[in-house]
Amino acid sequence: MQKTCARCGEGYEVFDEDLALYEKVSPVWGGKKYLIPVPAICPFCRFVGKGAFRNEHTYYRTKSAMSGKSLISVYQPNSPYKIFSYDEWWGENWSPLEYGRDFDFSRGFFEQFEELFLEVPKINLIQDGTSENCEYTNFGAENKNCYLTLGMRAEDVCYSIDIMMSRNCIDCLHVIAGEKLYECVSSEQCFNCSYLNRCNQCTDCYFLESCISCKNCLGCKNLRHKEFCIFNKPYSEAEYFEILKEYGLDTREGVESFRKKFEKFKLTLPCLYASLRLSENSTGDFLDGAKNCHECYIVMMGAENCRHSFVTGRACRDIIDSNSCDGELNCFADGAIASQRILFSHFIRNCSEISYSMFCYNCHNLFGCTGLNRKQYCIFNKQYSKEEYEELVPKIAEHMQKNGEWGVYFPLKMSAFGYNETFAYDMSPISKEEALKLGYKWSDYRQDMEVSGDHVVCEVTGRPFRLIKQELDFYKKQGIPLPTKHPDVRIEQRYRMRNPNKFWKRVCGKCGEEIVTTYDPSRPEVVYCESCYLKEIY
After folding, report:
1. CA 420-502-52 angle, 5° bins
2. Are residues 318 and 331 in contact, defined by beta-carbon separation less than 8 angstroms?
3. Would you say the pTM of this structure is higher than 0.85?
């Protein structure tokens, strides 16, 4: 089925497998199945729309609405929301049920939910599990000594996003099990490297792309198990280190000069259309052990029958149009971890049977709730008996169907953040005018935090930023020139190094076989299918 996106105007295809999965995840209430309709917007716009509700790395200094104490928060100081600290939000001095209310059938669902969402207090930062010395970290778990970082089980990491089980890293994006890394993107099990992209098991390297098991290599692409190579040419050990020194990568001028040479060199070699490891009947990028997954991005071992989803965790099954999820039978869910049957909801943990809700933990059978923990059978934060809940929910669903609200995600205007503060901007940077035209919010508020005393002025934006001792020690030890760009600018540049979560049909640049890839056909790279790529590099 071919459709035209109501948001961006581009055409997109709805597959039979999409329809089957929408039908499978559709809920049954009161003996009736409430079918999820085919979305009116394309997969990429659906993905970006959910991301507009997620602020991952824009921080502010604000005050607790409960105690008045100073807090680091992802919510602006002038926002209309009540912000509590982590301990206050999880404490016993308030109850989200205090904000419960009846559903008004004379009004729309989203209008009423927005009023509830405005009143129920928010936690300042999202932390799953205990972290140590990580005041400036968001969406983190079990981290230690991290600063302005989103990660899990990371230690001594600064200015990084999607960092897992890694140590001593700065300015990295989507790194797993790495150590002593700088400006590395989409790389795994690398050590003491800088400026890597799509690399695995590399050591003591600079400026590599799509390399595996390389050591002491510089400016290389598509190498396997090589050592002492520069621009893919082998050298003796003595020659390698002599040439490496001549490039002056410990200076800003040397780094930028080499970066330009490497960008030109990369275009002379093909790119693999996608990273698919041990995957079966699947399309996407960075898929590991996926089965029957379609147009997914970053899928971990064990995922099966997932479609149009991003960062899908282990043992996932039957998930569609969802971001940062695991579990099963989830649809239009963002941040649903260890949860099942989550529909049109944002940030749900250890829950089941949750619909149109936000920020709920350890709950089941909720509809239109926010901020609940260890609750069940609640609607708009009001407690019901099981029988009352099962009688009322179908009536609300039918009311939403009549109003055209059923089967669509929360309206963009309900986001607590400006588009330019969110993951949506990271994935799809657009201007203020474009964002407002599409219905997103925009933030012109700026608060440069803790930059008194010695600081650096960003050469791009003019915004001041400071260099903390932790990173200064790292730069000195690793021989890396000090940054001259604000951390926000550096984050945006790293996201541009990673292909977008958008898929195109094109043909292999060598054999003409049709492929589905994240490489836009308008880009200059030559892209090969797996068979042609492997013949090229081995």
Report:
1. 25
2. no
3. yes
